[in-house]
Amino acid sequence: MARLAGERAAVTVVATISTEPRTLQARGPRPELVLLHVRTVQITARGQQISARVPLMVRSGADLRDELTALPVGGTVEMTGVLGPADPEDPQAGWLRLRAPPRLLAGPGPLDRAVNRTRAGLVASVAHNRPDQRALVPSLVVGDTSAVSDQVAEEFRATSLTHLMAVSGANLATTIALVWWVGAWLGLRRRALRIVSVCGVVVFVIVCRSEPSVIRAAAMGVVMLAAAGLAFDRAAGLRALCVAVLGLMIVDPWLSRSVGFWLSVCATAGILWWTTGWARAMSAWAPENLARAIVAPWAAQLSTQPIITWLSDQISTTGLLANIAAAPFVGPATVLGMSAAVLGAIWTPLGVPFGWLAGWCVQPILWIARLGAGAPAGALEWPARPALLAVLAGLCLGIAMVTPWLLARRSRCLVVAVAVLLATVVRPPMPGWPGEWQLAVCDVGQGTAVVVRAGPGAAVLYDTGPEPEPVIRCLDELGVRQIPVLVLSHYHADHIGGAQAVLERGGVGLVLVSPLASPRSDAERIARSAAGAGVPARIARIGDAVQVGPLRLEVLWSGSVQGEEKAGSGESSAENNSSVVIRTSGAGPTAILAGDIEPLAQQAARRAASASGASLRADVLLMPHHGSSRQDEAFWRATGARVAIASAGVDNSYGHPAAAALGLAARLGMEVRRTDQQGGVLVQAGQGALVTRTRR
């Protein structure tokens, strides 16, 4: 299998479907993808048959989405495609890129049919709820995230509520608590309750699919239940946790590389180690149940914060408040959702009332996530360097040590609560940032947003990045109130995602856009947003020039290239090559802002500049296409730039900036700055010197 994957062999695979397909929305140049986990039964390739039961990830474009969605979990299918090797850290044996629609050979067995019917019953029971409700209820109850929108996912991520979008130990604990209550009401004794609880865990895992995340959640939930049964005996609970971790390592060693597993273990350990003592300190003036409800998420946050910061380069100031506020709604939503699933599997109308109630139990969670994500200081930057992570871990331990003292008095708790609330609203200034600047490349993740100063409080903005929050935060930090000209190089999401927010913010005088209105839906959306804000939009043409105070903008390139592929789905090179290329001069460093142009357009821009007598010389070059491997050396050489800046996201899947682009900059004597490693980049010119400063 590994040899065939390494050779990228064309194969025919007979496999059993393990999970529902998952759709990754189109993002920037990446088209929409559909992913499906399967377990192979037989592989036919190059005249040989291999019988092997190994996990495989199937990948397809949007054209086969309907065919994949229709396949039942547990069914046996025949698929043809091309194998590809998996990364060493991935648990699957490889990738299969489909070439044709799959063919169903056999339906699922009795157990899988029952599970499919139960999960379908839950989806049908919430079909009449609001869109976000009918997406979140199946996600929270059985881990079905297929309908959760990118916006909701981002809001939950920003408020540390992501664990509620998947099956967690809290779900299992709530479900088993319901089983205990029903068993006790029926008169069952302790031994019978234990047997029923074990059966409940097994059913929970089967209904939620026995994926690694579900197995992990089940183990953590059982540990918490064991500790609760022993009145939160810390020693006994930690022994149970160690047994669970060792058992899971034996069952699935790949969990040792799962960040989700690390978070689960750390959160459970933190709750077991700290909760009892903290609740006892707080119970001097507050009911014990309220005390546990407050200290449990606080313990989980402190114990997992270094890992979360390592992943995100951030500290969420709203996470604690959001988790405390959301906690009362998780239990009822889980119980009502499970009831809707079971009753809906019997007859859909029976489950609808419970599904409707479950939807309105998760609605407050959606409101909490939206409110927390919109907080002015919802997330604070903390670079994930080893030394700074060690400092953060020390701070978390220090806070944990003083927490009992803080909780012992109501007045101290009130002061802490006010401080936490203020931390979500007031963003502390970064000493010395931004200071003096003339050109800024904002850190907006995998995208582009460049701000060129045009006077006090005024600047030209070139692209807006993929999301509204980073570009708005960058403009606020730089003190930009007026944007006389907004240039949108082309209509890919990683360049226009924040445009609507910028227009709604106000102060925009003119929008310059690419002549290629593709993807059409995005071009129409930008036109509507500009019209709604009362801002004129104009197509940028080669040779156009705009004067904004001391700053001069020249359009060096805009439009299509002779002989290139035609624009189709909106993800072809035609859209990249249609990028509006701007040269800024007259105020501060001269810069070439090159959008996503590829070698064909770079060559065409060089020819156009030569024919018109325009200059390509500049101090700063914004690396075309985020520093991809496809570059025209003559274009770079013609700029004579001293600094090349790559605007890219941390660990992005495209490999930007590529080693080829970095090597090209080094050969041409250009200093390289990159937002993925250094954060925002500021440039200032004066007295023949070019000074750059980076946020990190």
Q: How far is the first residue's CA from the last residue's CA?
A: 44 Å
Write down the overall mean pLDDT: 88
Low-confidence blocks of residues: none
Spatially, the strands of the biggest sheet line up as: 16-15-14-13-12-11-24-25
The helix content is 40-55%
- Our Rg estimate from Cα atoms comes to 28 Å
The percent range for strand residues is: 15-25%
Protein structure class: alpha+beta
Spatial shape: globular
The number of helical segments is 24
Instruction: Characterize the largest beta sheet: strand count, sense, and whether it forms a barrel.
Output: 8 strands, mixed
Count of DSSP E strands?
25
Total separate domains:
3
Structure notes:
This protein is of the alpha+beta class and 696 residues long. The protein folds into three domains: 2-108, Beta Barrel (OB fold (Dihydrolipoamide Acetyltransferase, E2P)), CATH 2.40.50; 115-419, no CATH class; 439-686, Ribonuclease Z/Hydroxyacylglutathione hydrolase-like (Metallo-beta-lactamase, Chain A), CATH 3.60.15.10. The strands form four sheets. Strands 16-15-14-13-12-11-24-25 form an eight-stranded mixed beta sheet. A seven-stranded mixed beta sheet has the order 17-18-19-20-21-22-23. The longest helix has 28 residues, at 319-346. The chain is globular.
